[in-house]
Design goal:
Elements: H1 2-9, H2 20-27, H3 33-52, H4 58-67, H5 76-87, H6 93-113, H7 122-134, H8 140-149, H9 155-162, H10 177-193, E1 203-207, E2 223-227, H11 228-235, H12 240-247, H13 253-261, H14 270-289
């Protein structure tokens, strides 16, 4: 209900004097109660998509199921308005998808990599939530996107943060599910930015230098996505110099880049490679920060 009140009336609620039902009663006084009930039912159906993924598109399920275990609820009032404008045919499906993907990628870059806190962007998110619901126009989402990107951490902070990311399936210190999904999400963005347009269901995380060999090999500079068939059938537990030949058969950019740049499978520099990963992600951020074209071309 607090998210409904925020997107509908632009007011924050609490457990005392500014309870949601009081704000609703005050705002809807002398208005049709049936209209209010219809809107509540509609928005509840939207909200259920975000919490239970029922009747979601594949993209919605990917985004909402990534947000939920990470307790990312701040975007929900904003998404309520986006869903409503889509159903009103003010926001085309393609644009809705692009901005939903933007929220997903921003969250990864800002929170997962940048380690920034939600309170720094709360006023922006909530301020645009009520505008999108009640004053929607073609420029609002574009302005919102720009305002969010202006809050990204500095280049140096971003680089230092990404170099600290780890994942392992062998070493318990880095074997948690969130670490795995965070790494997957980071490399999905990179592969998209490098031109891959397919799905990622048949890919998993590859450790170029064998995961079981050393806990140091959990470093993000040693990781990438790779087809399960190549990973399990041809590369499992092999040293890099024996499996790099198989990387060239991948549909993804990073395995082919590894095969091209390191055909002999020599030991790799985790620091150099993590810097390349950070470069790729930060270049993407810079590109969409500077993009001065209509939102329909985003």
């Amino acid at each position: 209900m607090k998210h409904y009140v925020m997107h509908k009336y632009g007011e924050k609620t609490d457990k005392n004097e500014k309870r949601p039902y009081k704000i609703i009663a005050k705002s809807e006084k002398n208005k049709s109660k049936l209209t209010l009930i219809d809107d509540l039912v509609l928005k509840a159906s939207y909200y259920r998509k975000m919490t239970h993924y029922g009747e979601c598109s594949a993209l919605e399920k990917k985004v909402f199921s990534f947000f939920k275990p990470r307790r990312q609820q701040q975007f929900r009032p904003l998404v309520l308005g986006m869903m409503h404008q889509k159903d009103l045919e003010n926001l085309p499906q393609e644009e809705y998808n692009r901005y939903l993907e933007f929220l997903y990628e921003f969250f990864i870059c800002y929170h997962v990599i940048g380690r920034q806190t939600s309170n720094k962007i709360e006023d922006i998110v909530y301020g645009y939530s009520v505008k999108i619901e009640n004053q929607f126009n073609d420029q609002l989402l574009r302005k919102f996107r720009r305002s969010m990107l202006d809050r990204m951490p500095s280049r140096e902070y971003f680089y230092n943060s990404i170099k600290n990311i780890r994942y392992s399936s062998c070493w318990k210190a880095y074997a948690d599910i969130k670490s795995r999904e965070n790494v997957r999400a980071i490399f999905e963005i990179i592969e998209r930015e490098c031109g891959y347009e397919g799905e990622f269901a048949d890919f998993n995380i590859e450790h170029c230098m064998p995961d079981s060999q050393s806990i140091e090999n959990a470093h993000i500079g040693n990781l990438m996505l790779l087809e399960k068939s190549i990973n399990h059938d041809q590369c499992k537990d092999k040293p890099l110099n024996q499996k790099v030949q198989y990387y060239q058969h991948s549909a993804l950019h990073l395995p082919k880049k590894m095969a091209r740049d390191n055909p002999n499978g020599n030991d790799i520099s985790f620091e150099d490679r993590s810097e390349w990963i950070a470069d790729t992600l930060y270049s993407y951020i810079t590109t969409i920060q500077d993009l001065e074209v209509p939102a329909s071309l985003f």
